């Protein structure tokens, strides 16, 4: 597995086209690639108001106008977080084709998606359009472009799907292997299974010339990290509950998920793209999941987050008047309590039988990446929660979020 320092050798000066760069993973990836010296090109919908991407970029502009002295160097680096970007729809084949032609990328990282299970239930047709035809469109754009161009190195493509692509019969203790049947249950999961199949077909039918193409897919689990503000995700829900002192629901408290710190799969994505470009033995379809000990129930995850929030709060000077302990206790007093530990209490909703189906148990077998890439987990749960809480604190404290994330990345060097 290539460490951050080694990754620099592969990405410095290289053009990386990211679809979905304005999303949660995309935002972290932009900072990470910028740190590695890559030229990042983004193709996504416009960032949501108040999203992490908007915080990353608009926060910088604020700093530019207010402070010109010591921050100026970092601001200069950060304000150009991407080399170029387009806010357009991945369903528009013409749009993505002309963008690929314009950029002439060395690497293509496909992350644009409708990634939410509940939205998939509400808008199945849209979810399939974006997740399936969006994948067709980006691969088709690459095919049309490379057909016409003379390249000395292959273009390295990674399609980011999910751990939910497998047919899941909720067998506890079973960890999915890469060759297990692809058949997600709900529209989101199923559209990602289809996206895998589309990639397989393009790889076999059009991308067989290894001098031109290298292509893989990555199936990662649920990621956690400061700044995710998506709806109906558990840590953002915890953060909003604390921030707004509002009620929150833990939907499936006993569900087990392979949670990871956001940078964990991102570093593996970069490893796959870099190494497969060099040697086709690194192409494949890969599970990127934590070891068994980091597969937690949602309830346990919330407990760890609130604990980290308390710990971070006790050393943080960012929140002047609000002691997070008070925030939590004040919040808790208004809720139905099921569990109390230390000073933090967690609220759990009873299972609602009318809720759409979501798997109870999900774990990935990560032995293939361990064998092929010598993969070793970088972040334990303690680091994960500490880093997550710290970036959320920085958001509340209106700090420069680019620097908050960069500081975490720098600890890896
Ligand atoms: N976050 C997780 O826990 C998790 C877990 C497993 C897999 N994934 C996968 O990782 C990828 C990124 O997830 P995320 O959490 O950053 O999601 P996100 O919702 O934060 O970001 C989605 C990105 O896709 C873009 N996008 C959505 N619809 C689009 C369209 N029609 N045209 C162009 N761009 C469009 C958005 O603009 C945004 O940049 C997704 O493919 C998702 O399925 C995420």
Distinct ligands, ions and cofactors found in the model: nicotinamide-adenine-dinucleotide
Order of helices and strands: HEHEHHEHEHHEHEEHEEHEEHHEEHHH
Name the strands of the widest sheet in spatial order. Answer: 3-2-1-4-5-6-10
Mean pLDDT: 84
Q: Calculate Rg over CA atoms.
A: 21 Å
CATH topology: Rossmann fold
Tally of DSSP helical segments = 15
- CA-CA gap between termini: 14 Å
Largest sheet: 7 strands, parallel
The CATH fourth-level homologous superfamily: NAD(P)-binding Rossmann-like Domain
Short description:
The chain has about 425 residues and is α/β, with parallel strands linked by helices. The protein has 15 helices and 13 strands.
Structure description:
- With 413 residues, the protein is α/β, with parallel strands linked by helices.
- 47% of the residues lie in helices and 13% in strands.
- It is globular.
- It starts with a helix and ends with a helix.
- Mean pLDDT is 84; it is low at 62-79 and 316-346.
- The structure holds nicotinamide-adenine-dinucleotide.
- Nicotinamide-adenine-dinucleotide (NAD) is lined by residues 20-26, 44-45, 89-91, 111-115, 130, 160, 162, 220, 222-223, 230.
């Amino acid at each position: 597995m290539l460490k951050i320092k080694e990754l620099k050798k592969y990405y410095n000066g290289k053009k990386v086209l990211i679809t979905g760069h304005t999303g949660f993973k995309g935002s972290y990836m932009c900072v990470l690639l910028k740190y590695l010296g890559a030229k990042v090109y983004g193709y996504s919908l416009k960032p949501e108001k108040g999203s992490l991407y908007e915080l990353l970029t608009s926060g910088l502009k604020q700093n530019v106008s207010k402070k010109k002295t010591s921050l100026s160097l970092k601001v200069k680096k950060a304000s150009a977080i991407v080399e170029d970007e387009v806010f357009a729809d991945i369903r528009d084949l013409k749009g993505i084709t002309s963008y690929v032609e314009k950029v002439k990328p060395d690497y293509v990282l496909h992350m644009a998606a409708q990634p939410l299970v509940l939205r998939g239930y509400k808008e199945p047709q849209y979810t399939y359009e974006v997740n399936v035809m969006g994948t067709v469109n980006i691969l088709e754009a690459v095919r049309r472009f490379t057909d016409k161009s003379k390249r000395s190195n292959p273009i390295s493509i990674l399609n980011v799907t999910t751990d939910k692509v497998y047919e899941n019969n909720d067998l506890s203790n079973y960890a999915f292997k890469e060759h297990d049947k692809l058949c997600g249950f709900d529209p989101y999961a199923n559209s990602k299974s289809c996206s895998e199949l589309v990639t397989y077909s393009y790889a076999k039918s059009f991308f067989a010339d290894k001098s031109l193409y290298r292509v893989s897919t990555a199936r990662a689990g649920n990621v956690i990290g400061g700044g995710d503000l998506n709806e109906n995700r558990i840590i953002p829900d915890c953060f909003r509950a604390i921030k707004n002192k509002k009620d929150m629901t833990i939907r499936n408290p006993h569900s087990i998920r392979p949670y990871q710190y956001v940078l964990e799969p991102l570093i593996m994505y970069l490893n796959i793209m870099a190494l497969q470009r060099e040697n086709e033995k690194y192409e494949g379809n890969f599970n990127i999941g934590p070891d068994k000990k980091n597969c937690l129930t949602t309830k346990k995850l919330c407990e760890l987050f609130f604990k980290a929030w308390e710990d971070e709060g006790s050393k943080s000077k960012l929140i002047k008047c609000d002691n997070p302990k008070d925030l939590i206790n004040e919040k808790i007093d208004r809720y139905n309590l099921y569990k109390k530990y230390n000073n933090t209490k967690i609220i759990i909703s009873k299972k609602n039988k009318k809720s759409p189906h979501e798997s109870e148990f999900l774990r990935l077998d990560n032995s293939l990446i361990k064998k092929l890439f010598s993969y070793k987990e970088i972040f334990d749960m303690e680091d994960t929660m500490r880093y997550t809480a710290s970036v959320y604190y920085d958001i509340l404290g209106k700090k420069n979020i680019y620097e908050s994330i960069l500081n975490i990345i720098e600890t890896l060097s």
